[in-house]
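QA checklist item 7 of 12: single-chain prediction sanity check.
[x] sequence parsed
[x] length recorded as 405
[x] structure emitted
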Amino acid sequence: MDARTEEAGPSGLVSALIASGALRSDWVRSFEAVPREAFAPDRIWPGIADGTRQQALVDRAADPAGWRTAVYSDIPLTTQWDDGAHTGDSLGTRPSSSSSQPSMVCTMLADLDVQDGHRVLEIGTGTGWNAGLLSHRLRPLGHLVSVEYDPVVAAGAAERLRKSGLDPTLIVGDGRLGHAGLAPYDRVIATCSVGYIPPAWVEQTVPGGIVVAPWGTTYGGEAVVRLTVGEDGTASGHFTRSSAFMRLRQQRPELPSHDAYFRGREWPADGVRSKKTLSPAEVGGWLEQFVIGLRVRHAFWTVERYDDGAYTLWTYDTDDAESWASADYEPGAGEFEVVQGGPRRLWDETEAAYEWWVREGRPGFGRFGLSVGAGAAQTVWLDGQGDHPQVAYSLDAFIPPLSVR
């Protein structure tokens, strides 16, 4: 869909979403009755379609036409930076709340497959727009419970929902806990990404119920997973599409700085130089990051860019702050200098992950799936989950202590 709709208004956005195939017929009435502008703050930072960058502030008071155009474009809108600590007009350091891209809202609601009479749990109220759509759709037979960790964000959403005449149950608290008081739920949906599925989300869902959540590793790449809960309390299902959401706050990784790996030593320190034919550009796509994150455990990357289009891709181990790799990209080059330091050879692992993906036929997100077992055991698999699944990633999740507010 084009980033800007033909008409900067509710009908134009709805028409564009229908035309793109994102908006299903059973949701049209709710999208018409619950316009996005009723849930958008006056100050927004418009994003781009892939959800990974923000543009300059648009203030409704100063530019009402620009604000309306942004609100009714198929783009995400950042509405808070740095957990509310950033209050200026510039971009903050880290976006911490947003109004999700409308086409992503549509497709995730389609994955949820809400039916009349369902009880639904939403994790991440945000601006309240998704909660408003669900509340309208569930009336009069079903009900929505929405959990938001940030009390300021929650208060804003509550006021917007009240003005819109919608009345979900709003909870300020730790989304990892779900909300046991009104469980069980037929459906659970998260509007923030996770690196493991909190057990409470599965435990509070009825057998046969569905959990929809964006999932990704620390390395990068992310996709929406649609899990079906079994009679035995486990859950499993395929990934449905690429996504780019803000991380659940309690699962944000605390990553060491670049300097932590060198400890005052001059580059290349203990690094071993080599020439490689795999270009750093080949591993930078969202899907490629997802795959590498499955195979290269406990790692993350950054990029150092230069004026001539060249850059260095740095990869780091998150566990010991000792292993690192640098891969230098130069436009048009056939070989690329790589330096690897520490006990792990992270670029060799990256190459092996990429080559595995190529051998498997470059599978897309839809060929991968996630299984949530008893306790914390979680496994990502490729092409099935029978007796001999092709396991890509096995996670015995360390779950930080839960806090109740």
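[x] summary fact logged: The two ends are 41 Å apart (CA to CA).
[ ] second reviewer sign-off
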